[in-house]
Amino acid sequence: MSIEVLKPGLHTSIQDLGRVGHYHLGIPPSGAMDQMSLRAANLLVGNTPGAAALECALMGPELRFTEACRVAACGAEMVPKLDGERQPLNEAFIAPKGSVLSFDFVRAGARLYLAFGGGIDVPERLGSRSTYALGGLGGLDGRALRAGDRLALLPCSSRIPLRRLPEQWRPRFDAEHVLRVVPGLYEHRLSPAGRERFYAETWRVASEADRIGYRFKGDQPLEFVPREPPFGAGSDPSNIVDACYPIGSIQIPGGTEPIILHRDAVSGGGYATIATVISADMDLIGQLQPHRKVRFEAVDLPTALEARGEYRKRIAALERHFAPD
């Protein structure tokens, strides 16, 4: 059983839940940017939540099936079509042998997750099938899909009924979003006026928004505290002596455009990270299109941990919903 890639879309890659435990060696976790939507798509077709699927950014691929296949699409609103006939989002359907799957243009959100019964069969690298294109690791030859590629699938059960995803596990696509952040590690590098403006500003997602980082644009540069650059740091006011970067951390090179580091980010460098997006809000970033409005809201660590607990409860409830009777 295989799937032929006729058109790859804008940027389509194989992702699962990611590889954990290697970031200290410079290898980021990778994996789906919207982890909830990946889990949902897999559960709809009867896979384990972390099976390898396709992450499709802003434009879906065109695929031909060599055998009948159970398919589900979750996340961004891109209507799937089988031989030109509309199919449901957030609901499993059967793609007959020889049929061609394509997609309408994206109406909301940024990333669609496309799961196939059994899951995509590529070798695990460091415990994951996820693609890390910057390092040429995982997925299909360590890169995004190309026309002419063939995707092999693992065996699947044909006894699972066609499933539909309830509303409470679908992503929100509001006109403006609030991202909660924990201040630090280098928030002190901003002046009081700079900190106040960072949280008061309504930022817009820039066109430079990908799996490595999301850049935002505002009205005016943020003000940093004047200082003599320490030995080993550059002259830019946002430079520091090299330090580690947490996933979700926010740096502001030159004080002009905040960048949130995401799942393919580098693990360290010489820019001050003034805050970190809480883990419960990271899925939301993966669904932000360019020009969407965002504000940052400071929260303390107990609030971040409570939000993480609620997120994990939602995952557990999703998995219970589709568990066998």
UniProtKB/TrEMBL annotation:
Residues 24-314 form the Carboxyltransferase domain. The keyword Cell cycle does not apply. The keyword rRNA-binding does not apply. Keywords: ATP-binding, Hydrolase, Nucleotide-binding. Pfam families: CT_A_B. GO terms for molecular function: ATP binding; hydrolase activity. SUPFAM superfamilies: Cyclophilin-like. This is Allophanate hydrolase. It comes from Halotalea alkalilenta. The lineage of its organism: Bacteria, Pseudomonadati, Pseudomonadota, Gammaproteobacteria, Oceanospirillales.
